Amino acid sequence: MKLEVRNGNFHYMKRKQTLPNLYAKNVNFTLEAGEILSILGPNGAGKTTMLKCITGLLDWTEGETIIDDQPMTSYSKKELWKRIGYVPQAHKMTFGYSLEELVIMGRAPYISTLAQPSKKDKEAALEALDTVGIRHLAHKSCNEVSGGELQLALIARTLVSNPEVLILDEPESHLDIQKQIVILQTIRRLSEEKGISCIINTHYPNHAFYLADHVLMTGKDKGLVFGPTNEVMTESRMKHFFGIELKKIIFEEEDLLLETMVPRALGLRRDISTCKFNEEI
Ligand SMILES: Nc1ncnc2c1ncn2[C@@H]1O[C@H](COP(=O)(O)OP(=O)(O)OP(=O)(O)O)[C@@H](O)[C@H]1O
User: Fold this and answer.
1) Was domain 3-274 assigned CATH 3.40.50.300?
2) Fewer CB atoms inside 10 A, N or C side of the chain?
């Protein structure tokens, strides 16, 4: 699926009054099938708002989202939610659905109103749990799994409708490093093997380097920039948007290249000989 945003602008309204801040201004980009876009920007910059506008959960004040050269508004909601999977930020659930039941809910566009899920719906749910590596947890309650497992289940819930685009809002936040990697590798695999395009909000520069073909950086009054990851993610641009100096670090080991950025403010005046890389465990 080709997804484009043309001249997207968005204002929140309160009591029919337009609030002063413009959380998305002149958003323009094109995402081809299988490509990954990362959205980066400071807290409150409007990243979640932008994801909601892109998917039609909020209406652009001006501009539009275009899907395969047709305005998004020309598709029925049912058709749209078969093609777009939205993974919100994971919050602990206070109700006791099993992961299998949670994932079956993602089949809603295929289940007619008042009908019970079919055998096919259950199989699709188990297959989606398998794809994200947690089929063994199918019968566990949402209350009994970890934040990372719940996040994977929310991704599985979108996969059961065979989406062509996945929209993920900070899917790796609150997770330990190992779980973050599972999520990032799952997203990359879905894009490479199934040609699913992804738009992902993240606060981690190294995650954008690992995943993204393109980056959209946004910062309220600081404007917005969209382009290839390596062109957008420079030290000077990070300073402009985040107001701090970040040092770009590129590390090569055999055929692996690691790119990341660390805040200069966290540097310490220490002798390098005091640093230890490994230790007998
Ligand atoms: N329904 C609403 N009505 C008015 N203002 C809102 C509403 N929802 C969010 N906002 C405001 O819009 C701004 C952008 O919020 P948003 O959640 O999009 O930012 P974000 O970049 O995703 O932030 P974070 O990185 O902290 O998750 C915030 O200042 C927020 O207070």
Assistant:
1) yes
2) C
